[in-house]
């Protein structure tokens, strides 16, 4: 009876653990994709501003400062520091960039198209920035993880109690417990895609900043 019960617990725990890993991996990949799109939009916006020549050098400089600030806030240099996805400083900088774009007076058809495209890109940047901030607070519920850990602890406790005591069995239980704990740690880590050991790469943003050099 005990073995049957533990088999049921093992099946349920395995299913839930697999679903949690799949869910957090999908969320992690979504954030990574959004960062890539955000970086691409920054590069495209800088290129649109180039159509206005030297008169928009200040706006391009502000865009570079915004990008550098966003990198520093999203990927803090110190481990354990939470990312600031919607920091007031960068929010204001992006608002200022959008205001400057609205005040542009294009004189040619190319500049009119560039202004329209730049405003659209600025809107996309604001939307993605806000979306990343909202997603940062959307994580796997902690009670859910506690229940899963409880199931797994109960499962390995039953193995330790009822299994014959010898070196091979002990090593197998320890190896199994370590493997499962790594899976749980993987879930927690991917649930914090900008602060854990497994992080969304800042390379696209760094490349965008590099491409903005005058």
Report on this structure:
This protein is mostly helical and 214 residues long. The longest helix has 48 residues, at 2-49. It contains seven helices and no strands.
Features:
214 residues; elongated; mainly alpha
Concise summary:
The model has no long low-confidence stretch (mean pLDDT 87).
The number of helices is 7
- Profile the largest sheet: none
Beta-strand fraction estimate: under 5%
Mean pLDDT: 87
Output the radius of gyration: 25 Å
Q: How many distinct beta strands?
A: 0
Structural class: mainly alpha
Order of helices and strands: HHHHHHH
The rough form would be described as elongated
Spans of at least 5 consecutive residues whose pLDDT stays below 50 are none
The termini sit apart by: 73 Å
Overall helicity: over 70%
Please specify the SSE layout and strand pairing.
Blueprint (H helix, E strand, L loop, with lengths): L1 H48 L7 H18 L13 H15 L6 H28 L5 H21 L4 H24 L12 H9 L3
Helix pairs in contact: 1-4, 1-5, 1-6, 1-7, 2-3, 2-7, 3-4, 5-6
């Amino acid at each position: 009876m005990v073995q049957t019960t533990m088999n049921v617990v093992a099946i349920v725990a395995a299913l839930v653990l697999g679903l949690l890993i799949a869910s957090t991996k999908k969320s992690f990949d979504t954030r990574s994709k959004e960062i890539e799109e955000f970086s691409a939009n920054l590069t495209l916006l800088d290129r649109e501003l180039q159509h206005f020549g030297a008169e928009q050098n200040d706006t391009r400089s502000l865009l570079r400062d915004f990008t550098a600030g966003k990198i520093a806030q999203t990927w803090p240099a110190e481990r354990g520091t939470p990312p600031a996805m919607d920091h007031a400083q960068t929010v204001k900088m992006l608002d200022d960039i959008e205001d400057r774009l609205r005040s542009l007076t294009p004189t040619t058809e190319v500049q009119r198209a560039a202004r329209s495209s730049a405003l659209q890109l600025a809107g996309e940047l604001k939307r993605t920035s806000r979306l990343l901030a909202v997603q940062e607070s959307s994580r796997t519920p902690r009670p859910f993880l506690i229940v899963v850990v409880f199931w797994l602890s109960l499962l390995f406790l039953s193995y330790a109690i009822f299994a014959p005591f010898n070196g091979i069995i002990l090593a197998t239980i320890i190896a199994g417990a370590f493997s499962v704990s790594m899976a749980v740690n993987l879930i927690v880590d991917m649930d914090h895609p900008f602060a854990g050991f497994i992080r969304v790469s800042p390379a696209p943003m760094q490349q965008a900043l590099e491409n903005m050099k005058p």
